[in-house]
Amino acid sequence: MTTHGKRAVSAVIASLALLNLSFQPASATSNDCRTYPSLSPSRQVEAKVLAPGITAQAWQWYPSRSDAANAGVSPLGTKVSIVTANLRTADFGIVHPPIPKAQDLRTMSANLPDAVATINSDYFDQNGPWNSMIEGGLLSYSIPEVSGVVGVEKVLVNKATGYRAQGVLTLGTTKYPITGVNQVTPGADSIVAYKTTYIDSLTPAGSLTLVVQSGRIIKIYPKGFSAPTSAGIIIQVRGSWVTELSKIALKSKASVNLGVTPRYENRIAADSIVSSAVISGKNSTLKISAVNFGQVASNGATLFTDSYSNWTQGGQVTLRILPSSATRYYIANVYTNGYNTPVDAGGYIVQARGTSAAVAKLFRVGDRVTIAKTFSAEGKSTFSSASGRGPRLVENSKLVWVCAMHNLDFRPRSAIGWNQDGQVWFMTSSRGMDADDMGMRMGGSSPDQMGQWLISLGATDAVLLDGGGSTTMQVKDQITGWQRFDLPDSAWYRAIANAFVISPKK
Question: Do residues 454 and 427 touch, judged by C-beta distance below 8 A?
Fold first, then answer.
């Protein structure tokens, strides 16, 4: 696990086609960044379909100066492992053992009957993860300060900035899927339709551009073009459909059915959050600064739920809260000298210190209380599920990792990338082979290489996760079941605090 000095913001369209992608040659964004070899088919060592629309692929450079070192990756060897999914056909969530315990990813994965891929998540210590977790739209764990998270949010669709679609482009008698409408950042493998409702007067350029007006193709731009939305319905094509659609003749019959505009859609987002949880009763309202975080702050209140597996640390004031029904709670005990205690099944414990202790004293035994485990997000994200992240690597399709300011050592790394089209990528880099290195886990890649690979795949945004000995990826093969995908199954597993999960939609 990578260590940091302080706890803070760390800083199915074509499943089989995804197994044969080729990418751009090695390059570097500046003299301070490393070069990155392309994820070319000649380097691919594994490719499998985990479920419809969910694939796993791996590329390998072997330890030698003529191979790995000359490619610009670790001379000890580098294996890049990637799981690709889309929120159209997959769910994205988190999993963790009882807080604050840790567990290896092999065990966590084996207990997930519906999942097909997992990757380690957050940095952690004896108190639990370094950053907060959200489950069911509520805090299941939070630290007593701002923390960085990445997860799924339910977004109200804005027609001007676009959404995923399930429309149809009919050319002659052949039908093609329209994957998006008015998207600002389309997917790398997409057919996106733009109307006059788009946020700008010019559309983003695709690899191929078609202009449809009055049921005909009136313009074809074989190399793509940022077309004015006033010209008609603009079709921007990228990826696997470009070759076929480039054969369409000018003035061909064309019809565009965009389907029903969804009210909401799920998207991946990264944000910084802080607890806004409160306990309210007739005698007092107490702000909760942390949830299930083991160390009670000197001037704050921590809420412990029955998912907390240890005895709570005593505060100056302790509230024992029990359920009176499925949705109602009452104050069972108020300990004004503090009290170390486990949490009752279905109940809560509040440990308060400093000014929060004075507020907690105002509650009375028997008070009916409501408990809101809410959070506030800097970017207004409305997460339904989220877990901790490291620094941002990519924003708006640009590498934002300032290489001159960071260590660029080759190390095992974990990252997540995503785009507006709903695509999400789990990525790890490692040595690719079992080696007795006492948990140092050398080999792998630099952070900027991870970001550039994710950009080459089509990610518009990406974040680092915990790395080093924590880096682990598991996939569920349709025949053999769960297997490690970043290293051989014989490799050492570190117990970790939590993980991200991809599952097929039911």
Answer: yes
Q: Taking residues 154-168, report their average pLDDT.
A: 94
Dihedral-angle region of residue 285 (phi above 0 means left; psi in -120 to 50 means alpha; beta otherwise): beta
- Contact in structure between 100 and 116 (CB atoms under 8 Å): no
The Cα–Cα gap between 431 and 467 comes to 13
Cβ neighbours for 205, distance < 8 A, ≥ 6 positions apart: 224, 225, 226, 236
What is the CATH code of the structural domain delimited by 163-262?
2.60.120
* Tokens 């600064």 belong to residue: 289
Q: Which two tokens stand for residue 485?
A: 């995908």
More confident residue, 289 or 337: 289
User: Which of 39, 43, 123 has its CA nearest to residue 84?
Assistant: 39
pLDDT tens figures, 31-49: 689 999 999 999 999 999 9
Distance CA 155, CA 132 (A): 21
> d(Cα 80, Cα 414) in Å, to the nearest integer?
10
Domain boundaries, the chain: 15-131+381-504, 163-262, 277-373
- How far is 138 from 156, CA to CA, in rounded Å? 19
Contact predicate 460/396, CB 8 Å: yes
DSSP string over 318-376: EEEEEESSSS-EEEEEEETT---BPPPTT-EEEEE-THHHHHHTT--TT-EEEEE--EE
DSSP 8-state secondary structure symbol assigned to residue 98: S
Instruction: State the pTM of this model.
Output: 0.89
Beta bridge partners of 9: none
- Residue-wise pLDDT for 106-155, tens only, equals 999 999 999 999 999 999 998 899 999 999 999 999 999 999 999 999 99
Phi-psi region of 356 (alpha: psi -120 to 50; beta: other; left: phi over 0): alpha
SS3 of 109-146: the string is: HHCCCCCCEEEECCCEECCEECCCEEECCEEEEECCCC
**Local structure of 103: helix, strand or coil:** strand
In 62-103, alpha helices (H):
70-71
**φ and ψ at residue 70, rounded to 5 degrees:** -70, -20
Residue 367's beta-bridge partner residues? none
